[in-house]
Specification:
- By secondary structure, the chain is mainly α.
- It has helices at 39-46, 62-73.
- Helix 1 (39-46) crosses helix 2.
- The chain starts with 38 loop residues before the first helix and ends in a 6-residue tail after the last helix.
Length: 79
């Protein structure tokens, strides 16, 4: 779930990073769940067409723009 930035006079930045492995360790006091998605799944989520009804972040969220950038760069792109 995403939400708009509640501090309009503050700066929000978005960062990208490259994972060194595919292990996911979830701190359940912070997150309910976490997992990896491939580009095909993420594309379906952005389009609101994922078969299990998972949805990507709304266009007003910075996460939407970060995800869209990753999707448009393609599989061979380097960060």
């Amino acid at each position: 779930m995403t939400q708009p930035w509640p501090y309009p006079s503050s700066l929000m930045i978005g960062c990208t990073a490259r994972a060194t492995n595919e292990d996911v360790i979830v701190d359940h006091s912070e997150l309910e769940d976490a997992r990896w998605f491939n580009r095909a799944e993420a594309t379906l989520m952005i389009k609101r067409q994922h078969p299990t009804r998972l949805a990507g972040p709304h266009p007003f969220a910075i996460a939407h723009h970060l995800l869209g950038r990753w999707l448009h760069e393609g599989p061979g792109a380097r960060a």
